[in-house]
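Review form for a predicted model. The reviewer records the input and the model, then writes brief findings.
Reviewer: anonymous (R2)
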Amino acid sequence: METLQTLLLILQVLCAAVLIGIILIQHGKGADAGAAFGSGASTTVFGSQGTGNFLTRTTAILAFVFLVNSLVLAWIAKERSLEAGQMTLDINTPVSEPQVEETQEAADDIPADIFESDLPVIPE
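Model under review:
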């Protein structure tokens, strides 16, 4: 499972880097207006339509791979956290307070000359 997660992380980084590069290579819709006036777009390597179809399809495929890979990595992370016991909190288990044992030593710490009448009265 560890090796699969490492491979998927490498694929995620490579896919993101290539996706960023392909998006930056593409030209906007406003660049087509210059091609209509003979800016040399008809002599491109990819034909008279330019690189639009190739880059658009490649971007869509890489975006799909990136999305699916992200979902798989999230699922793996959830499963690993469940195995580690981080998310297994049983809310039905009652919480008990720790038991305090009264010892004779605690009673011996109280001075013998203090009586209840000497204590201040707190109104309720």
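Findings: The CA atoms of residues 36 and 42 lie 10 Å apart.
Further findings: The chain has a mean pLDDT of 76.
Recommendation: see findings above.
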